[in-house]
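[[Encoded backbone]]
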Amino acid sequence: MIPKFRHLLLLGAFLPGLAAQAATIVLEGNYQGKNIFVQNPFSEAGVGFCVYQVMVNNKVSTDEINSSAFEIDLGVYNFKVGDKVNIKIMHREGCTPKVLNPEVLKPKSTFDIVKQSIAADGTYTWTTRNETGELPFVVQQKRWNKWIRVGEVPGEGTPGDHTYSFKVIPHSGENAFRVMQLDNTRRPRFSETTTYTDPAVAAVTWTYDKGRKAIHLSSGTLYEIYDQYGNIVMRGYSSDIDVSKLDKGLYYLNYDNKTGESFIKR
């Protein structure tokens, strides 16, 4: 689960002696072994503190909250790393507590690859353990001297062993695949590379039909076309590519496992 941080106004939620509406800050995410810290100002009336109750997964917290700063101890709930957590911080209207570290509930990429393989039919399978948050696995393929995204599979986000699969589209010759996760640190985490060769996939050839302004490929393949400035102008999967809408000029074609084949659109 991607963590959420929202502020709700609860109409009619009054405490005895509270002459104002109440509001709630809601934190949602996954337990990562760390606690939440909150700055707690005085109420607008100047009597008592802003926060009057904290709930963790619908259970009232027993933490001491009558102070200018307090800690929500998540360790007392016997959570396992990766467990879903929902925290409600209920406070008086006219004041707003500040959660100092909401990022500790955000999922982190911690997976380890137990094994990975590609079957004869092109099914890429990998088994993980030690996941601690629901992050997608991005499947990448090495094509045209770079890694490109070819698909995505949702991650389970829990520490046990999990097996995933994705049907890949191989090019001729040796193929290289890997999976990647990206968490809130923005630092990608990659698996090791696994390779695969499908003897049934023949090398693709191409011709440019100037009259029809189209590229014909001997079989369907992933492709991309970029202009002389390096800008990608078309990409997809096909055996026939209509380039009639491209501006006149020099272009380059990547396809199958070939790079930089040039043609001139007139």
